[in-house]
Each structure stands twice: as C-alpha cells, then as structure tokens.
Amino acid sequence: MSHLASPRITTLRSAAVSRLRATGSVFAEDEADLLLSHAATPADLEALVERRAAGLPLEQVLGWAEFSGLRVAVAPGVFVPRRRTEFLAGQAAALVTAASAGAARPVVVDLCCGSGAVGAALAAAAPDPGIELHAADIDPAAVRCARRNIPRTVGEVHEGDLYDALPVSVRGRIAVLVANVPYVPTDEVGLLPPEARDHEPLAALDGGADGLDILRRVTAAAPRWLAPGGHLLVETSARQAAPAAEAFRRGGLIPRVVTSEEQYATVIIGATG
User: How many helices (DSSP H) and strands (DSSP E) are in the chain?
Assistant: First the structure.
C-alpha cells in the first residue's frame, strides 16, 4: 500500500497491531508488518487481520512460509512447514550431496510431503546436475499445494498412502528418503495450539497412541525401497527418540539420533546395513 500517505499507513498499522495483540499475538508488530506488506488496499488489510485474528496460521493467511531460504506456498488446510524441520532438511541435504558424488542424479523422496517444502529445499540445495525428486502425500489439498512448490521441471508429486503413491521404478533406488511423519500422540492433539488443531489436517498431526504409528509403517518398508547405502530420515520428538530408533532397528536399518538444541529438533537417520 505504498501509494498511501505515511500517516495513513501508520494509522492502519497501529490498528492492525492492536487487533492482533487483543487476540493474544506475542508478535503483533511483526505480523502486522507482514500483513501490511501483503495487502493491496486498506480493505485487504482488514480482511487479512481478521483472518489471522480468527486463528488461522499466519502462513495460511499470507499464502506462503519461509523455509530453508525459500518462500514456500502454503494453502488453507495444508500443514504449515515448521522452522525446526529445516534441521531435517539440512541433514537430508548433506546426504544428498554425498549421494551425488556417486550417482549422476540420485533418487530422493519426500514422503508425507505436505506443502512439499522439504523436497523443494532439497532440490534447491542439490549440486548439479540435480536429483530425481519424488514427493507424496495422502491429502489431495497437500498434493495440489506441493505441485506449486515442486513443478514438473523440478520433480514429481504423487497422491496416495506412503509408498503406494510412489512409482515402482524407484523401488530399490532411493538414495535419500525423508519422511516428515505425524508424531503427536492422539491424546495430545487437543493440547496443540488452536491454529494447528483447528486449521491443519488431523492426518498431518496425529501419529496414533504413542505418536509412532506412521513412523513404524515407514521404517518397516524402507529397506525394500532404499538403494544400497541409502538413508531414511524422520523427524520426531526428543522423548520419542529411543522407541523411534528401535523401530528403525526392527525394520533392518542402523539408526543414529541427531539433535539441534537451537531448533528444538530431533531427527533419526537410518542407514541400510
């Protein structure tokens, strides 16, 4: 709204900050600035502020999220990529770089891809000549969103349940398999912030009784899909790390746990034997 006089913008910003602060936002000033930069008119700003005040995640209101240096499209009803998942993407990117030294275009899979943020980040970070990227999710809305972030020139996005969505041509050829599975225990979903539990798909949050149901399914089948020397990476919580690592072992993978205190992130990396 740069066409408006500075005093008018100041007034609009002040009103937006007050409205957001009244709903409990602890970053009201920062959020107001983002919404102000995104709005074309005062009416647009009011609509955006009201959507945020109603509890929608800021990223869904804006239509994008910052992730690993990229601006990733985020649609309403689609899981918002978390900043802590940048640690998962970074760990995977290092393995992609290593795999690229031994293959012209290593096969990389982003399972439970949501918006496709991790896959897009891996494609952007991969050394030339790039990767053969496949992403998959069971949610049609997520698949549509992921195709905006992973166009066909970058990779393929498939709809379906875990490995059922993938083309059989990649079976036994995957160098790096990333699965940002849901890992919130069912009884704890109701404790999540309202913007998550009310505006993100339950299937992207609920990991079953102990939060590890989907992780176990992924680890059990991973060895059949990974290439020799391939790796599976899964994000989880610190308190779930031990049982998650045990699931990797039962699946025939050699696990190691890596953490980031700065990003409050825990990742299990499993290597083929």
Answer: 10, 9
